[in-house]
Amino acid sequence: MEILKLNNTSQQEILPYYFNAVNHLGKHIQIKMRPIKPDESEEELSAFARSMAKIFSACEPMTVAAGITEEECFEEIHLYLQSARKDGLSLILTNEENGKIIGGIIGRDFYYDENEDPYVGLNHKEKFQPICDLINISKKKFTNILENEGHILEPGMVFRISYLGFFSKYIILNDGDGYSLTAISFRKFEEYLKSLGYKYLYGEATNPGSQKLVANSGFTVDEIILPYSNYTPFEKINFHDNSIQGIGNSLCGSIHRLSKEFPPLIKRVA
Fold first, then answer.
1. Pairing state of beta strands 170-174 and 225-227?
2. Which long-range contacts (CB under 8 A, 24 or more apart) does 205-210 make?
């Protein structure tokens, strides 16, 4: 099985994809990356939502600042997946040895994300409202950028990432060199969307880690900057000096114009 065959042009060559990896304990495993299907079982969706909820409730700064519990986060992500699976574009990564979910990328075509309310029926919606309000400001600014670049939003043009998270740190092996699991998974996702004809990839980078990831992947992170200090209940979010371009204490609307050449991946040593 081929490893790290990047820059494919055929959708069929890109996903599903298998990574040979080693974790921080030196254990070698194989990881499978595949799309979430429109007919995905409820059991698999629930397990995926539960896994992502563990990550977001513990680590995502706005979720933590808003006091959203893991169970509330699970409800939100599970509900969002009901809509996202229709597009068949969200990705799930699993350990091939035991089927354990390692992480994934969840999102929607921006056209439908803008025109449908994925939170109908969500309990405790008031706790999520400050996050939705701030994200909506970012989305509006991005829509204005699209218009300034001469585009009218339509299906198949923009994909928006809503959730991205991974449980463990793995190094993807390639002849003794390595790439981080997050970086290589993100690159394969970019290639996948480009093969489907998408022109933009968009998402809200909410902490220094996600900002560094998108910046290293070819996104611009300085066109939409919303400082947390200006918005309740996020004004106390502070990452100190651990930020990119000094904007870590902000939500950044991150834009990847997929027509641009992808930058080289940064290698890491296991």
1. unpaired
2. 205/251, 205/252, 205/254, 206/60, 206/61, 206/62, 206/251, 206/252, 207/59, 207/60, 207/61, 207/239, 207/248, 208/239, 208/242, 208/243, 208/244, 208/248, 210/164, 210/254
Say whether pTM exceeds 0.85.
yes
List all residues 6 or more positions away from 156 whose beta carbon is below 8 Å from its beta carbon: 109, 111, 196, 197, 198
Burial per residue of 204-242, b for 16 or more beta-carbon CB atoms within 10 angstroms, e otherwise: bbbbbebbbbbbbbbbbbeebbbebeebeebeebebeee
Render pLDDT for 188-224 as a digit per residue (tens, 0 to 9): 999 999 999 999 999 999 988 888 888 888 899 889 9
Strand partners, 94: 32, 101
For the segment(s) 11-257, the CATH number from 3.30.450.40, 2.40.420.20, 3.90.660.20, 3.40.630.30 is 3.40.630.30
pLDDT one-digit tens code per residue, 41-85 = 999 999 999 999 999 999 899 999 999 999 999 999 999 999 899
Give the domain ranges of the chain: 11-257
